[in-house]
Amino acid sequence: MSSFNFDSLWSEKSTDADRLITLHAKYDFAVAYPPFEEVPMYGLIDGLKSKVDANLEKVAKEMAYYPHVQGDESLREFTANKIASDRGIKTDKDSLVLCNGSGEANGLIIQALCDPGDYVITEQFVYMGTTKQLSYYNVNTIGSPMDDQGLIPEKFEETINKIKNDHGVLPKMLYTIPEHQNPTGSTLPKSRRLQIIDICHKYGIPILEDDCYVDNRFEGEAEPAFASLDDSGMVIYVGSFSKLIAPGLRLGFFTASNEVIDRALSVKVGSGPNQFAAYAIDGYLRSNLEQQKSNYDKILKEKKESMEKGLEEAFAGTKASWSSPLGGCYTWFEMTDGTNLAEVRDEVFDRGVGYIAGDMFAPNGDGQNMARLCFAFEPIEKNYEGIIELGSIFKDLNVI
Amino acid sequence: MSSFNFDSLWSEKSTDADRLITLHAKYDFAVAYPPFEEVPMYGLIDGLKSKVDANLEKVAKEMAYYPHVQGDESLREFTANKIASDRGIKTDKDSLVLCNGSGEANGLIIQALCDPGDYVITEQFVYMGTTKQLSYYNVNTIGSPMDDQGLIPEKFEETINKIKNDHGVLPKMLYTIPEHQNPTGSTLPKSRRLQIIDICHKYGIPILEDDCYVDNRFEGEAEPAFASLDDSGMVIYVGSFSKLIAPGLRLGFFTASNEVIDRALSVKVGSGPNQFAAYAIDGYLRSNLEQQKSNYDKILKEKKESMEKGLEEAFAGTKASWSSPLGGCYTWFEMTDGTNLAEVRDEVFDRGVGYIAGDMFAPNGDGQNMARLCFAFEPIEKNYEGIIELGSIFKDLNVI
Q1: pLDDT of residue B1
Q2: Could you give the CA distance from residue B102 to residue A139 in angstroms, rounded to a whole number?
Q3: B276:A20 CB<8 A
Q4: A306 vs A1: CA distance, rounded Å
Q5: From the CA of A400, how many Å to the nearest CA of chain B?
Q6: Do A60 and B66 touch (CB under 8 A)?
Q7: Which of A1, B44, B146, B218 is deepest in the core (most CB within 10 A)?
Q8: How close B206 gets to chain A, by Cα (Å)?
Q9: CA distance B375 to chain A (A)
Q10: Which residues pair with residue A253 across a beta bridge?
């Protein structure tokens, strides 16, 4: 026990809240993880070894340095070429910044643009890591209406005008996950992207495009990136290796105009991200990018289908509906009669099935009758079994 | 070029400063890097492989998760045992937090304790990474007088009272690098540590002990850590793998009382540090800790002696003096006649020798007649050659 008295010393910012400990249910659909079965540990080790074998002295010197503020040059070059080829984005290694996960990238952009009290528009339901960061910097998050295809452009313009009318300011940016959105799994069609770009130009609102699920499409073709549809510098593009390989690598990136990069780096404390992980990713993906994507896509499709089979069996004839995404990690589940899934969440968790209720993703707190189900992490058969179990628990609790 | 107009959008916090690009002189004594010749790349790969071989499924699952907010459990356990055994610090894996470098650890503690406008005491000359962080959070840094043994306890108490008298508040903490200090290379004797602990209890000022050079002692025995001399919870202990292995791994840590850990984690955004690098460090050091220390210590000693030989040859009979540290990475060089080394720095750099002038480390801007010379990074013979070159440049510029 501590006898030194810190009571009068704490900053206003810090709290004495307990540490968050993540608990996993038997069937854990609450997570946001890629398929662990295919995490290429030996591939990463071989990739790392190939870099060391190729030039031990160069690698040892670079490891002894504090990493370049933009991260490893070779991985930046690889990544710039990858998104040029995959996503039609014109960039190069000097305009790319590797970060400690895409979360750091989003955080730098938020800090470069937002002062406390500012407004940022997001999708109506949105990744809570970003809303947490916005709230950490005392930025107000306003969700804009979406349907099963993502943001609705007309409603987006209304949201801008509502902020303007209510608060006398324009929002500082739009944050969006247009491809296999977290949590809804929706993908925004090209036509809507073009409309949103027009609206953003009209009001002078930059777009922070978080494209971290684009590598996880298992059917059809990706929609074009916002960043490929606009060459004015308005779009800031964020990506990640968390869902292409694994979150444990803590490597994401962004590309933007040079003035945005300078601003973002001006608020960064410390050096670039992990050089050791960068070597492994670079060494591995330079020989295995397409194989890696197809390994994940194959198993993600099987996992989604297994979950869907469960949903069809367990919820046939009920008021439940669910999305059928063509990529990413999540199915969006809804009780169309408005039944509250938030209030039974803990009970369902205790009985063995984890999910996150929709209100956790909603800046305005709605969506209690919805839930995000992650199909990516649990083994194929557990996706089915867990959903059957969920149906049976829901029956027991009179949810369905 | 960007045609989208960001001018009215930037936050007050961001600046349009150019990106910092680190340039290296031919003889680079300006850096803060460990001996690259001994960075154990193959050892790290083998360490990583040993973890994967031992339990692929466990590793793959942990990589697929977002890392535990305190970082990898096994490396936490190893580190807690290491500092218990090396430094006599009573801790365990639950009271240890792995961070993205020791910089993140320091940043979390600063945020947990300091509000804008607060005061923190450091050594008179101190690691600029920490002063940059303090200034980023709008905390005032006050350097307290030191001699070749580090902080002077009586002067430290005077500094506390001066802050109290001038500003009506007590400082929020003491930040100190007591062992092989950066930049001076000094080590604080046990008797002074005990005096400082008494003073800190008297005024209720916690100590942030940054012990990141302790593994780099090549002669004699380490002084006892502040954290081992006080069991009240007043001391927060920070360490790092940057100087024991390499900064490119981006892994440091801190240990503190549970209430300090809870406060520090309450201001943290995002998950724990790189799981991939954690496996490599854990796998490697569990079999090679003593070997790794002795590899570095042997070459660091040779490098320091090579630099010292150069100093003795080049500066004999001049007004120059220098410290002869028993560990760490730096020799502290001083022109005892007050000759300004800051104003010739750029010219000397252009002629091939890099150093950092003392004023860059001084919160109050003094020390222009001093310089930090890093002997750890350049090869042994270049330490000698570069110093001979420095002497000749200084002669040419009438510095000596």
Answers
A1: 45
A2: 28
A3: no
A4: 50
A5: 32
A6: no
A7: B44
A8: 8
A9: 13
A10: A98, A239
**CATH T-level topology, domain B42-287:** Aspartate Aminotransferase; domain 2 (3.40.640)
Give CA separation, A166 vs A142, A159, A173, A201, in Å. Answer: 12, 10, 17, 21
- Does the domain formed by A27-39+292-396 have CATH 3.10.100.10? no
Would the CB atoms of A2 and B377 count as touching at under 8 Å? no
DSSP H/E element including B237? strand B235-240
- The minimal CB distance from A3 to the residues B57, B104, B232 is found for B232
User: Domain B27-39+291-396 in CATH: superfamily?
Assistant: Aspartate Aminotransferase, domain 1 (3.90.1150.10)
CA distances from A195 to A24, A156, B216 (A): 41, 10, 60
Confidence of residue A2 (pLDDT cuts 50, 70, 90): low
Tens of pLDDT, residue by residue over B352-371, are 999 999 999 999 889 999 99
Domain boundaries, chain A: 27-39+292-396, 42-287
Whether A209 and A176 have beta carbons less than 8 Å apart is answered as yes
Number of Cβ within a 10 Å radius of residue B57: 10
Note if the bond before A363 is cis, omega within 30 degrees: no
Contact B63 A249 (CB under 8 A): yes
What are the phi and psi torsion angles at A261 (to 5°)? -60, -45
CB contact under 8 A, A11 and B104: no
Distance CA B197, CA B226 (A): 8
Rounded-to-integer distance, Cα B400 and Cα B394, Å: 6
